[in-house]
Amino acid sequence: GVMQASARTALFAGPALIGILSGRTDLLKLFLYLALFPGLACVALYLLPDRLLPDRLLSQRGTADAGTIDVNHRPPAPTPADADAAAIAACGMRAVSLYWLQALFAVGTVLSYPYFVTDLAERLEIGAATAGLLFGLPHALFLLLAWPLGRRLQASGARVSLGRYAAVTCAGLLLQALATSLAVMIAGRIVMGIGM
User: Fold this and answer.
1) Greater model confidence, 70 or 93
2) What is the pTM of this model?
């Protein structure tokens, strides 16, 4: 959930911003300005150190000179196989399966934006600004709920939780597909956000 925060923030703020500014400003200039953010992120990442000291070495800083700490006595780093075994033991699924499911879902939510706006304009006669806000609604709910729910659920029972929340997400998508009014569409987006 924490790793998804920046992406979900973009999925919430981006469509809303584009919807609000469409027709009021040159969107190509807006994209030029937005291109500065990944450029700044690139510079910030470049300036980060190659590696961080392990926690046990950081705790020794108060009692030992940093120049005399032997960094060669680190515990071995966990391998991908260790992480996969831990995930299977914790939730009954391979970690790579969870990652693929998350990636497919994230790509699906991003790809659906232009079709979502067009559909709402035709089906419910909603403008681009409102459609952008509605598109971002479940992603805003994700930002509000992912951290507390993730802390509560941990890894135990992740497969059961994943199934339950996927069912809630499907119910939200079904509500949206059947929506004939703005109120039902909003309800569907809220249910989808809770499921996500």
Assistant:
1) 93
2) 0.62
